[in-house]
Amino acid sequence: MLVQLLWKPLPVSWPEAVPQRPTGLRGLVAWAREVAVGVSQDEDVERRVRRGAMQAIVREAFQQTVAEQDSEHRGPAAFAEAWKTRLAAVLAQETVEVTGWGQLTIAELDTGLGRSLYDAASRARAETIARAVVMPGRRRGADDGPTVSHEFSIAADEDGSLGRVQYAVCEPCGVGLLKKISFSPEWHCCGFGTLALRELETRHPGLTWYTTGQYAHAQGFYQRYRHRSDSPWTANQHPCPHF
Ligand SMILES: [Zn+2]
User: Is residue 238 part of a domain?
Assistant: First the structure.
């Protein structure tokens, strides 16, 4: 839904127009004529371009907020607020430079549509985060020796996969290796990392876990998690000879 709202062409009927009740006989006649004739094609094209431009502004504000996640680490609510503030600042300007659109004059655009789009997209993001669940895992190919590789994804039904976790276990040694957790940047700081690590521990209770350098970009998160977790996580890089 988030992708649909920010990246796909907006349906002509979005958001559902509030029907204007014509008043008086003259108003009714004018309304009936308008409905009968419909909007001319030129108006339609112009409207579509204006809506596309506003969508690009909301999208760019979103992407710029995502780009700050590496330094800001905003949780869902703080992210929504930062995105909203950024959008409001853009809409308060006279003109704005938007990737792929050049310079746009705000007064020529429908700022109300921008705010509606932000509201809907922001709600869609929050709903996706709330609905995200761990999907059934699968074994990946055959391993040499006693180690078994697995992977699972985290997804919110219709939106498809939000991220993926790859890991391996060595049952004889009682060791689990977290190989990789990958979420695209727009889903960082949404609690999915914690969800994924808890799932590892639930699926394979009693193992001692460790991870390799690939996870270095998330060291802060990983260290905090290790200290909260009931399962042992070791800093030892070679807890079992089979990996
Ligand atoms: Zn082993």
Answer: no
Single out the residue in 96, 131, 166 at which a domain terminates.
131
| pLDDT tens track for 144-197 | 789 999 999 999 876 588 999 999 999 999 999 998 888 888 999 999 989 999
Q: How far is the CA of 243 from the centre of ligand 1 (A)?
A: 7
Confidence (pTM):
0.81
Shared domain check, 15 and 117: yes
Cα of 209 from ligand 1 centre, angstroms: 12
Provide the domain limits for residue 29. Answer: 2-131
Tell me the three state secondary structure of residue 136.
Answer: coil
Taking the C-alpha atoms of residue 61 and residue 79, their distance in angstroms, rounded to an integer, is 11
How far, in Å, from the CA of 168 to the mean position of ligand 1? Answer: 10
Ligand 1 center to 145 CA (angstroms)? 8
Distance of CA 38 to the CA centre of its chain: 37
Asked if 151 and 167 count as a contact pair (C-beta separation under 8 A), the reply is: yes
Instruction: Give me ligand 1 centre to Cα 148, in Å.
Output: 10
